Amino acid sequence: MSKNEQAYLDLCKQILDKGTKKDDRTGTGTYSIFGAQMRFNLQEGFPLLTTKKVNFKLIATELIWFIRGDTNIQYLLKNNNNIWNEWAFKRWVESDEYTGPDMTDFGNRSLADEAFNQLYQAEMKSFKERIIADDEFAKKYGELGPVYGKQWRDWRTSTNETIDQLKNVIEQIKTNPDSRRHIVTAWNPEDVPKNMALPPCHALYQFYVADGKLSCQLYQRSADVFLGVPFNIASYALLTHLIAHECGLEVGEFVHTLGDAHIYSNHVEQIKEQLSRESLPLPSLEINPELKSVFDVELSDITLNNYQSHPAIKAPIAV
C-alpha cells in the first residue's frame, strides 16, 4: 500500500469519524474538519489516486490552462475537459438571455429525476457546442472571471500595472533558491466579491528548495475531499515536476494543507466504497526532455506511465 495514497485515505476516515455536520453555501450539507495536512514524497511515485480512477488528462489540461493565464472554458472544452462547465452553465441558465427549461439546482435534480436529467444533458450539450463554435458567446458565457490563471499570470495592482507571479517565482527559484518568498497567491481580496465564478479554493502555494530538490506547499481554504482534492493533489504535484524540470532540480515533497476539509453529505457512500478498496502501486511521470519552459508546455510533453487503478466512482458536484 502506498504511503502517499494512505495520507489521503486517512483524511477521509478522519472526516467520516470526527467531522462536524455543517450547512454550506450549496445547500447540500457537509461533514467537516478544520486544519489538516497531507505530505506526499514525489520521489516515491506520482500521487494520482489508485483506489478510484482519476482522469489525468483533465488534470493536465486544466493546469496548462492555469499556466497560460486563461479563464475561459473554451480551451478546456476544445480539449474535452468538462470540469469547469457547471459554473459557466449556471451563469448561462440564470441569465436573461436563457429561454430554455428551468435548470434550478440542476446538479442534484439530474441525479434524482431521469426525465429532468435528459433535459439537462441536452441543454448542457447545446451550451458546450455553442461555446466551442461561437467566440462571441464564449466570450460572454464561457468566461469565469478573474479565477486562478488570471491571478497567477496577470495580477492587477492598484496602479493598474500587472504582476506575473508565476514567472517571477520561477525566476527567483533559479536565481535565489534559498529565498522564503517563492509564493503565488490566487486569493485577491479585491476580486473575490466581483465576478469570479468560484473564489479560489486552492488559495496560495509556496516553493522550497533544499538538497537540489523542489518542494511545494499548498494552502487550500476549502477542500471537497472526494471530488476536488484528488485533482488538487495531482495538479500541484505536476506543477512541481514541471517547474523542477525547468529549473534543473529534482522533485521533493508536495505538502497539502487544508482549511475546511469536507465530505459532502451526498458523497458519503462513495467515500465508503473507496475506503473498502486496496491501493495499488503509484504511476511515474515523464516530461519531455526538450521542454525548456513551463510556459511552452503542451499535453504531449507530459507522459504518465504505469497508471493502474480501481474503477471510477461517480458523485454529484455541488455548485
Structure description:
With 319 residues, this protein is an alpha+beta fold. It has helices at 3-18, 56-67, 73-78, 85-93, 106-112, 114-133, 135-141, 148-153, 165-175, 229-247, 268-275; strands at residues 20-22, 30-41, 155-156, 162-163, 183-185, 202-210, 213-224, 250-264, 284-287, 302-305. The strands form three sheets. The protein has a six-stranded mixed β-sheet with strand order 1-2-8-7-6-5. Strands 3-4 form a two-stranded antiparallel ribbon. Strands 9-10 form a two-stranded antiparallel sheet. The protein is globular, with a radius of gyration of 20 Å. The model has no long low-confidence stretch (mean pLDDT 95). It comes from Amphibacillus xylanus (strain ATCC 51415 / DSM 6626 / JCM 7361 / LMG 17667 / NBRC 15112 / Ep01). This is Thymidylate synthase. Pathway: Pyrimidine metabolism; dTTP biosynthesis.
Index terms:
319 residues, Thymidylate Synthase, Chain A, 2 domains, two-stranded antiparallel sheet
Average residue pLDDT: 95
Distance between the termini: 34 Å
Query: What is the SS-derived class?
Result: alpha+beta
Q: Please report which band the strand proportion falls in: under 5%, 5-15%, 15-25%, 25-35%, 35-45% or over 45%.
A: 15-25%
Using DSSP, what is the number of strands?
10
Regions with little confidence, pLDDT below 50 for 5+ residues? none
Secondary structure tally, helices:
11
> How much helix is in the residues?
25-40%
